[in-house]
Design a protein that fits this description.
CATH superfamily of the largest domain: Citrate Synthase, domain 1
Largest sheet: 3 strands, antiparallel
Shape: globular
CATH topology of the largest domain: Citrate Synthase, domain 1
Bound molecules: carboxymethyl coenzyme *A
Helix content: 40-55%
CATH class of the largest domain: Mainly Alpha
CATH architecture of the largest domain: Orthogonal Bundle
């Protein structure tokens, strides 16, 4: 008869333990009963970088990395990207269900009315040097919003918590646009309530002296699709940071700043900027084989390739590749696309990449679209952070409402010195310098 348990025999003591399996997993706390004697701490799981450790139970995003499946609240990413707006998907991620037409109107209205930034936000930005990176400006400005919204600390009050979540979702594009305009030395543009989330963002970024800036509908829709694709991705590095910082009950502004900091790294959201630098470095299609050989010889990584969870084509990359064609029909083809396609073609046939199941990820083609739309590479990760704020907040709220969660505090396996006593100063001269 099938039994949902795992029997472990400790060969040190000869004792056996029966551990329950729930949803296919064991609780590592159940290992603690496995001890050598009463004074022993018990067995822990050792898992650097969480390769095989679940830190939560979540209902938000489902990924099957082997099959290349991504779903938000059960809906396939392909259907959401094809038929929904970003704010509709944001509502779904945050609330668990798609909005009715009435709920959608009220939600869009709510987010629209929170897009304004307090005037003092401009002075935060003015303090940055002219050449500050927009992502770092965004991270610092999000954290600084915590000085404006004191009620953000009341995270257990549902109404206040939700209000600050809306503030964040609404103001991220405004802060991102201000950071971008600051880096160009252009005046800031106020939000326009008559425009959609992405049209308004594009206006705040690109409006110059024309009386009315009109975002190209194909480009605005492409940005909306890209935002949908980036909205959540379960327990990735930045979401793990959001949950970890959130578990100390810090306010959502500083939690989001921490998550955005994690996102900025080149192995995470910063990869899209690195892909463009890499394509520039390769220069021509003819140089691709030599570049690939260099990667295989250990000279760096093929940026925009590989994923901890996907061991198949990242479904988001497939949609982005299609969206790129639509964008290029308006903007003209990005000449780097040929280099990217050649990289993908060779890599997908090469034994090194095939054996390691390395496929293009979300960052491989997104930068090409962003560049064609007129963004500088420094803005690419900022464009990732705006929609991911929705996922961070949904995951943060799920954590707060989960009675099993506590302050995140991993254990360690101590491998340093055993107890030793302080030598006199004169005796320290020849002490080995340890790290
Ligand atoms: N180019 C060349 N080799 C690679 C790459 C790559 N992009 N990615 C992984 N490998 C190799 C790696 O060297 C290792 O080889 P070996 O077994 O011989 O040591 C093997 O593949 C397994 O890789 P890993 O480092 O154990 O995989 P990981 O799950 O720890 O890392 C990753 C995942 C995304 C950090 C990594 O694939 C990578 O650095 N990719 C390039 C950066 C990138 O595109 N990041 C964006 C990720 S998707 C969006 C996001 O999260 O923001």
């Amino acid at each position: 008869m099938e039994k949902n348990t795992l029997t472990i025999t400790d060969n040190r003591t000869g004792k056996s333990y029966e551990i329950p399996i729930t949803d296919g997993n064991i609780r590592t706390m159940d290992l603690r009963q496995i001890k050598l004697n009463a004074d022993d701490f018990g067995v822990m799981g050792y898992d650097p970088a969480f390769l095989n450790t679940a830190s939560c139970r979540s209902k938000i995003t489902y990924i099957d990395g082997d099959k290349g499946i991504l779903q938000y609240r059960g809906y396939p990413i392909e259907e959401l990207a094809e038929r929904c707006s970003f704010l509709e998907v944001a509502y779904l991620i945050l609330n668990g269900e798609l909005p009715t037409p009435k709920e959608l109107d009220a939600w869009v209205d709510l987010v629209t009315h929170h897009r304004m930034l307090h005037e003092t936000t401009k002075s935060f930005l003015e303090g940055f040097r002219y050449d500050a990176h927009p992502m770092t400006m965004l991270i610092s400005t999000v954290a600084a919003l915590s000085t404006v919204y004191h009620d953000a600390r009341h995270i257990h009050d549902t109404e206040t918590r939700r209000l600050n979540m809306v503030r964040l979702i609404a103001k991220m594009p405004s802060m991102a646009a201000y950071a971008y305009r600051h880096s160009l030395g252009f005046p800031y543009i106020y939000p326009d309530d008559l425009l959609t989330y992405t049209e308004n963002f594009m206006t705040m970024l690109f409006k110059m002296v024309e009386p009315k800036y009109v975002a190209h509908p194909v480009l605005a829709r492409a940005l909306d699709i890209l935002f949908i694709l980036h909205a959540d991705h379960e327990q990735n590095c930045s979401t793990n940071v959001m949950r970890s910082v959130g578990s100390s009950l810090a306010d959502p502004f500083v939690c989001t700043a921490a998550a955005a900091s994690a996102l900025s790294g080149p192995l995470h959201g910063g990869a899209n900027e690195e892909v463009l630098k890499m394509l520039d470095e390769i220069g021509t299609k003819a140089s691709v084989p030599a570049f690939i050989e260099g990667i295989k010889a250990g000279k760096g990584k093929l940026m925009g390739f590989g994923h901890r969870v996907y061991k198949n084509y990242d479904p988001r990359a497939r949609i982005i590749k299609r969206t790129a064609e639509e964008v290029f029909s308006v903007t003209g083809r990005n000449p780097k696309l040929d280099i990217a396609l050649e990289l993908e073609r060779i890599a997908l046939e090469d034994e090194y990449f095939v054996k390691r199941k390395l496929y293009p990820n979300v960052d491989f083609y997104s930068g090409l679209i962003y560049q064609a739309m007129g963004f500088k590479p420094e803005m690419f990760t900022v464009l990732f952070a705006i929609p991911r704020t929705v996922g961070w907040l949904a995951q943060w709220e799920e954590l707060l409402l989960d009675s099993e969660q506590k302050i995140a505090r991993p254990r360690q396996v101590f491998v340093g010195h055993a107890l030793r006593h302080l030598p006199e100063v004169k005796e320290r001269e020849h002490a080995p310098v340890g790290r």
